[in-house]
Design goal:
Radius of gyration: 24 Å
Shape: globular
CATH architecture of the domain at 51-188: Orthogonal Bundle
CATH class of the domain at 51-188: Mainly Alpha
Strand order of the largest sheet: 1-2-5
Structural class: mainly alpha
Strand content: under 5%
Largest sheet: 3 strands, antiparallel
Distance between the termini: 57 Å
Length: 256
């Protein structure tokens, strides 16, 4: 498991043992999990796609996979939420999606958190693509899956790992993108691009459906190289405004 996942398991056991100590179910006086060390620090930065890379991938995809990527990268839906969508969850009048369930490894369950169940707004062009899919699909009833599997005659949704391995990653390769892409790459890219566009951190937090804006900034938002250069340029102009108008002086070598 990832270090962050192991840290969450560690915290759950800590709460469990604290409960046992509190009610004297454990004879010893301290929580034994405190002796277990587990860092939540990431081993590497998450992969983030630039806008042009996302466009290149979308251009290589067939309509179904393209729509799945669009919802992941423009609405921040998790893969478990994507495949858990039913047509009854989408309000075309209010232009939003109601997240009612998640599916992981074929098992239908509840959403990750209470915050995850908040309605998700969808942009007009994405809503139009959703409507076209609804009109062209044989499985378009309110209780039908949005991304129903034709192989299983609509009884189950598509498997996201299969879509990623057989459609999306090959599309990225054809587009000349060799980054290691997963479903969460699109969610990370969504948050990063929103932040790079200068959106209010509270708005980004709400769109990501995070309980804390600190989590949004520290975990999901990676500064783009262009944004870093622009930030540096603005800082240099504020400190050395004359340098932006006058040519840099020639540097003469001298012996010491």
């Amino acid at each position: 498991m990832a270090d962050s996942t192991k840290a969450k398991v560690h915290n759950i056991f800590s709460v469990l043992f604290n409960h046992a100590v509190r009610y004297e179910w454990l004879k010893q006086g301290r929580n034994p999990i405190t002796l277990v060390r587990q860092s939540a620090k990431r081993q590497s930065d998450p992969v983030v796609l630039e806008s042009k890379e996302i466009r290149a991938i979308l251009a290589q995809l067939e309509p179904c996979a393209r729509l799945m990527v669009m919802l992941a990268v423009t609405a921040g839906l998790r893969r478990s939420e994507l495949v858990g969508l039913k047509w009854g969850d989408i309000s075309f009048r209010e232009m939003q999606i109601s997240i009612q369930r998640s599916i992981y490894l074929g098992v239908i369950g509840k959403c990750k958190t209470e915050t995850s169940r908040k309605p998700v707004p969808i942009e007009e062009r994405v809503a139009a693509d959703l409507w076209l899919r609804k009109e062209s699909s044989k499985y378009n009833g309110l209780e039908d899956w949005v991304f129903a599997s034709s192989r299983n005659r609509g009884r189950t949704p598509l498997w996201p790992n299969t879509v990623m391995a057989k459609l999306i990653r090959p599309a990225a390769e054809r587009a000349g993108i060799h980054k290691k892409i997963g479903w969460h790459t699109f969610r990370h890219s969504y948050s990063t691009l929103l932040t790079a566009n200068g959106e209010n951190v509270k708005v980004v937090q709400e769109l990501m459906r995070h309980a804390s804006s600190r989590f949004t900034l520290e975990i999901y938002s990676q500064a783009c190289l262009t944004a870093k250069r622009e930030a540096q340029r603005r800082l240099v102009e504020a400190i050395l405004p004359e340098r932006t108008q006058e040519p840099a002086p020639a540097i003469q070598s001298s012996s010491i």
